[in-house]
């Protein structure tokens, strides 16, 4: 029952496991203080022993000096080994204090996780990252690591965090200020876990819903995607007036380094690369990092396309941030994967990749890159350019002044204010596709005083399905993945009690012809997926959900709720039989936002971010084409109240 309370369930969960929060805080504070003091002493001793000036006299250690001056001062002190170490990003599973110190590792990351993993807590992650940081600060030059993770709809890996609607749903809101606010909330929860860098947002313009990453795209409309890049100013903080275009920016310790991805054209089906797919990147050039796509352009893999990465992004657009590879991006350049590794390293670095997400075979990468530099295959000027960009990222992020996590931010994890933001996003993302078989007799909003209501469907009582992929794990999973309600406030443990909407719920038993139900709410949709595992030539409702909807709708007036990361094939018989149809996308943890609109507290305002096709033979669709004939057009969305 504690899981359903308005209290911060994150804190409740810790109490259930008999963890003393105040004692934990004191322990972390003591450890950080001891580490900082010892690290300062070690650094001072080493510099003095080497006959160098003290730390306070080093330009790069002085926060009052300009970022570019600090970069150049530090760069000229670094050895080739230290520079190559900075270009190396490794997975936390192969990271240790010894490895970070021996190889001068510049960055550590984590994967989104596999199914079955235990619940990850933000404060435990912060302690782990601080341990890595301690090792980095004990190296000769005390260059801090930068820790990155996938926070694609909130800090989605961790138990108790606020998981927001996926990007496809946020695109339906057309609320660009709300996107910025979501970015700010996400930044706070990420920094609470000790991380500094998020591999988000995805600013792909998805032209085909059969693509498995459609849920990560805000829209098929370039203008919508461009406007939704406002989330970057929430994650990083808004840059001040006059901030030079193309230079990274971070407002402070409550913000995170953002990474626009995947440059460029992923999700695309047309060759108009600049007008359609590059525009969102031009709209957010204050972003600190960019990640290239696994895709090809004109037959070339983008991780090896120097024209696009260096001549266009860096030179023409003036991007001065860090270009970081995607996961195992260099290995995936080889055909078959992992082959010709040395040639792939050479191609990627000369293409303009600054930091490589290795993530496991770091020794092989470091050895090959060192050898390529020694043999003159990669010039030191290219290495220096990459390290300059990495250091610019770190100096801008304030890591030299504030390398450790801030435990005071833990109070924001899953806090009520963030949950309310997420709930607002849910209700604004809902797209009303049908409301009444007769246009003069709207079915919604529902009567909250109804005596008996049937709540049914595979997604009505499954929080994992509601959140979709990139939720606790990479592919997502079924069940109660964190401490939140499912849609409409239903509870697994109390199906027949009254929920937050004041309605009585009954589980779906199949034979209900003699039951006296006022109406039914049936929630169906897709099982969770992410990336290529979601590629589907015929995207449709999973688990025979359309049959469930038809079965119920034949006997009870029904509103169907679709939880999906994209438009799906809709059975026309089902569409005819339901009284109302709502596209709820993948709403995240705050599914009560669905009830807010279904029961009339708020009207529907969402607009389709993608054209809803009639049949897959129409795909990809182009709203500007004469043959454009969707089931529901781009931008479609009904309201309950007639204007």
UniProtKB/TrEMBL annotation:
Top-level division of the source organism's lineage: Eukaryota
Residues of the Glycoside hydrolase family 3 N-terminal domain: 79-393
InterPro entries: Cellulose_Degrad_GH3, GH, Glyco_hydro_3_AS, Glyco_hydro_3_C, Glyco_hydro_3_C_sf, Glyco_hydro_3_N, Glyco_hydro_3_N_sf
Alphabetized Pfam families for the sequence: Glyco_hydro_3, Glyco_hydro_3_C
Annotated keywords: Glycosidase, Hydrolase
Start and end residues of each Glycoside hydrolase family 3 C-terminal domain: 430-639
Family: Belongs to the glycosyl hydrolase 3 family.
Protein name: Beta-glucosidase
The organism's taxonomic lineage, starting at the top: Eukaryota, Viridiplantae, Streptophyta, Embryophyta, Tracheophyta
